[in-house]
Write a structure and sequence with these properties.
The protein is of the alpha+beta class. It folds into two domains: 192 residues, Fructose-1,6-Bisphosphatase, subunit A, domain 1 (Fructose-1,6-Bisphosphatase, Chain A, domain 1), CATH 3.30.540; 128 residues, D-Maltodextrin-Binding Protein, domain 2. Helices cover 30% and strands 25% of the residues. It contains eight helices and 17 strands. The strands form four sheets. The chain has an eight-stranded mixed beta sheet, with helices on both faces. A five-stranded mixed beta sheet has the order 12-11-13-17-15, sandwiched between helices. Strands 1-2 form a two-stranded antiparallel sheet. Helix 1 packs antiparallel against helix 2. The longest helix is centred in the first third of the chain and has 22 residues. About 1% of the residues have low confidence.
């Protein structure tokens, strides 16, 4: 592509910084450094089949899931880049059972929570995967507190994801707009390719694993039936698209218009997706783009997490579609 007509990620971030006269530049630097980590990770993803870094490490993470080799590479890349950025006081990762604190002489003003490689069970199948991140401002300049990490998503000041697919896409928001950048591997730079993204008002795609139907809460099947009921002899208005990598499904639905559901499991009463590392950042992006995100019962960004690895059900997509899912959930409970 012609680089003459595109704004780089760094230029875009710096322009946004100038809109805030009191900005110190630290958040700008942090977002740029996350982009650097994404470049390091995508380089390894591209080489995975050549240097035998497919497969698992033989270890399990705090979730009890098998750790893929690329999981560990992505984790290490994020931690090292953020630690050396001098913008971060602490980090929390989906792969770890503890908070990672940065030495005081290198610590900055922010806390970053991240899923280093979302969708990693799809690595060996060559399916798109990604990194999801969330940024908060720390409360105390002298120490990292529990409330710096365990906090509702509405307190985020930035969030985004890096998608490693047919191209590498960096998408982020600081609460005003959602903007997408594509990495040009020839020059090693991200260029703005989708400015001010707005989620379409109507969902023409439905993303859900229907093989989980026996475990859905009672409201989900009637809701899905109502969505499918939009298709008639005149026109197919809704299609199913489900990759199985949350970040991939969300990105496609953000651009094309779709609703993603991963309801809680009625056997356990809890969902599968992590509040801090997956749901909060994507919910922040969705709301900024004009969409919504819910557990089916409440707004995702209002959840008060109690632990690093709390999970929840998730419905995320156009606002009207999420509201309709919530209506079905209320009616199922007789409310």
């Amino acid at each position: 592509m012609s680089t003459q007509t595109y704004l780089t990620l760094t230029q875009h971030i710096l322009r946004r910084q100038r809109e805030h006269p009191d900005a110190t530049g630290q958040l700008s630097s942090l977002l740029t450094q996350i982009g650097v980590a994404g470049k390091l990770i995508q380089a390894q993803v591209r080489r995975a089949g050549l240097v035998e870094i497919w497969g698992d490490t033989g270890q399990t993470n705090i979730q009890g899931e098998t750790v893929q080799k690329l999981d560990r590479i992505a984790e290490d890349s994020m931690v090292e880049v953020l630690r050396r950025s001098e913008c971060v006081a602490a980090m929390a990762s989906e792969e770890e059972n503890h908070v990672i604190e940065v030495p005081a002489d290198m610590a900055g003003d922010y806390v970053v929570l991240f899923d280093p490689l979302d969708g990693s069970t799809n690595i060996d199948g060559n399916v798109s995967i990604g990194t999801i991140f969330s940024v908060y401002r720390r409360h105390d300049p002298n120490e990292v507190l529990r409330k710096d990490i365990l906090r509702p998503g509405r307190e985020q000041i930035a969030a985004g994801y890096i998608l490693y697919g047919t191209s590498t896409v960096f998408t982020y928001t600081t609460g005003s707009t959602v903007d997408c950048f594509t990495l040009d591997p020839g020059v090693g730079e991200y260029f703005l390719t989708r400015p001010r993204v707005r989620m379409p008002d109507k969902a023409k795609l439905l993303s859900i694993n229907e093989c989980n139907e026996p475990y859905w809460p009672s409201w989900v099947s009637p809701y899905i039936a109502s969505v499918k009921g939009q298709n008639d002899a005149e026109k197919r208005r809704v299609s199913a698209r489900h990759v199985g990598s949350l970040v991939s499904d969300f990105h496609r639905n953000l651009i094309e218009g779709g609703t993603f559901l991963y309801p809680e499991d009625n056997r356990t009463g809890r969902g599968k997706l992590r509040v801090l590392y997956e749901c909060n950042p994507l919910a922040f992006i969705a709301e900024t783009a004009g969409g919504a995100a819910s557990t089916g019962k409440k707004r995702i960004l209002d959840i008060e997490p109690e632990g690093l690895h709390d999970r929840t059900g998730l419905v995320i997509g156009p606002s009207a579609e999420v509201a309709e899912a919530e209506r079905f959930a209320r009616e199922a409970e007789g409310r």
